[in-house]
Design brief:
The chain is mainly β. The chain has one helix and ten strands. The protein is globular.
Amino acid sequence: MKAFLLLLLTAAMTPVFAQHVVINEVYGAGGNAGAAFKNDFVELFNPGPAPVSLAGWSVQYASATSTGAWQVAALSGTIQPGRFYLLQLGAGSGNGQDLPTADAIGAIAMAATAGKVALVNTSTALNGACPSGIQIIDRIGYGVSANCFEG
């Protein structure tokens, strides 16, 4: 009986890993005066045990209080388990260091103080202040004025 109980406890304590990708970091001050980096960027992370294809996926951005269409940066490639993916975005006026080699490059210029970023499994632009649906894999709002974020 003790061995059976131990097996149940061990199985119940086995961690469950997400089978998706998450937004790990956003940086919207690229190239601004005093900026650490020349470009804005979004860093993704695969916390799961299997590779995830980003074919057809996008990272999308909207200003903090926007209620319209979101800007789209297409993704490609695959993120291996436990690995990061760097999406280089717009550059400000050239201040700061170069980013490491990016996995993808987009032209979106994000605001430094507030905005909304979504990881989406399609390249169709989102619309509205805080869109929802199964196509949204992860999202974040930064700054006090962002009207959409993951709680």
